[in-house]
Amino acid sequence: MTVTQALETALAAKAAAREPGSPLRLSASGKCARYLAYWLHFPELIPPPTPRGLAIFELGQAVHDWVRGYLAAAFGGRFHSVEREVELEVAPGLRVRGHTDGILETGEGPLLLDIKTASARSAQRMHEQGVPYEYRAQLNAYLEASGLERGALLVYVKDTSEMFELPVRRDPAVVEQVRQRFLKVAQSTPQALPEREYARQSLACAWCPLQTRCWEGAGEGR
């Protein structure tokens, strides 16, 4: 067995052992409600990450830690609340939890940071079109749960090691969309899933691992 094969085997074993977890978490705030309901009611349908997917995820986590280490060194105690648990009240008796990447105290007040990694192509799209909806929804959920108004998406470009930030202000309309999304998921049943949020030809559907099953069941609940 070569070194590369050994690494791939270890990644494959770890990927296969990963549990899908709960879809009712703030990191899923911008995902399609129907996908989240499939995840809630049929977790066995959620494929485990591929070895490559797990490697990308873990490298992203390493970048998170690296960036936060330098933020702490640069700002000292002004950068805080790393991995602080927060809760978004969706409805009476329904709270969705998440963990913040960190908060930076600035002259204009606290700034909630959300750290992401991106390819050069995705980064260029963000420069041209702004923060993608899924990220805006996620940041708005954390802002609402933290009681803050200002946030920023801090992006590390994997191809070039460029870093840039995009501001995001709390948007009550987006917060309400997030609440309604989680509420629809929580109130769904295996026989009555939420409506699809995207057209079949959309990029969101193209990347969804449940696209075929979801659209095969059009008009049939599951």
TrEMBL record:
Name of a matching Pfam family: PDDEXK_1
Record-linked Gene3D superfamilies: 3.90.320.10
Superkingdom per UniProt: Bacteria
Domain PD-(D/E)XK endonuclease-like: 82-214
InterPro entries found in the cross-reference section: PDDEXK-like_dom_sf, PDDEXK_AddAB-type, Restrct_endonuc-II-like
Protein known as: PD-(D/E)XK nuclease superfamily protein
